[in-house]
Amino acid sequence: MFATTPLRIVAVSAGLSQPSSTRLLADRLAAAARERLATEQDRDVEVQVVELRDLAVDIANHLVSGFPSAKLREAIDAVTEADGLIAVTPVFTASYSGLFKSFFDLIDHTALTGKPVVIAATGGTARHSLVLEHALRPLFAYLRAVTVPTSVYAASEDWGSSGDEYTEGLPSRIRRAGGELASAVLGRTVSGASRTPGLDDGEDAVVPFEQQLADLRLD
């Protein structure tokens, strides 16, 4: 019997403006993950986006009172109960935004244990791309989530760029990260995945864990 419960992908966007490049990146990552999941299994896939800008007052009130509003509780439950999570923040002062951090401060440190997560960020310059590794990845490691290998940073100049022979463009990185999240949601190994052939070449680039071990023994 096929499972009938839909798979749930939740994207958290900490963008403040409207329209927001942070929200746009969250939407594109969610679409990439949804597309890959839809082609690889028979269950429906539901996507929900949590806009933190709409919850800013509720988040502040919860921090000082200890009691979440119904709207904030619904958002927290969506994140903790998701099959896969996408977390996107703008870069403020070389780190994640205060709104982004405040929201995840409200989540119990064990509630995301083992949950697959794509981390992503937006900024005005590529010089801030290391925020993914020195800020976001440690945050989700503390929360015991499993971040997929590919993180996505989008600077202003990345939008509309297709990349070149040496550098993957933003659309390619989004597809790869979405594919890795889909594989993690389905319980497949993504860490150390081969890039030849790649996900963007239309073939599954995931190398079975046993094969990875065998390759290591041969080196």
Report on this structure:
The protein has 219 residues and is α/β, with parallel strands linked by helices. Helix content is 40%, strand content 18%. The protein has helices spanning 21-40, 56-65, 70-81, 98-105, 131-142, 170-185, 209-218, and strands at residues 7-13, 45-51, 84-92, 95-96, 116-123, 146-147, 152-155. Strands 1, 2, 3, 4, 5, 6 and 7 form a seven-stranded mixed β-sheet that branches. Strand 3 (84-92) and strand 4 form a beta hairpin.
Q: How far apart are the first and last residues' alpha carbons, in Å?
A: 43 Å
Helix percent reads: 40-55%
pLDDT < 50 runs, ≥5 residues:
191-219
Structural class: alpha/beta
- H-E string: EHEHHEEHEHEEHH
**DSSP strand (E) fraction?**
15-25%
Please give the radius of gyration in angstroms: 17 Å
Inertia-based shape:
globular
What would you call the quaternary organization?
Answer: single chain
Main sheet summary: 7 strands, mixed
Q: What is the overall pLDDT average?
A: 85
Number of helices: 7
Count of DSSP E strands? Answer: 7
Summarize the structure.
The chain is of the alpha/beta class. It is 40% helix and 18% strand. Strand 5 (116-123), helix 5 (131-142) and strand 6 (146-147) form a beta-alpha-beta unit.
Which key features would you list for this structure?
seven-stranded mixed sheet; 7 helices; single chain; 219 residues; alpha/beta; disordered C terminus; 7 strands; globular
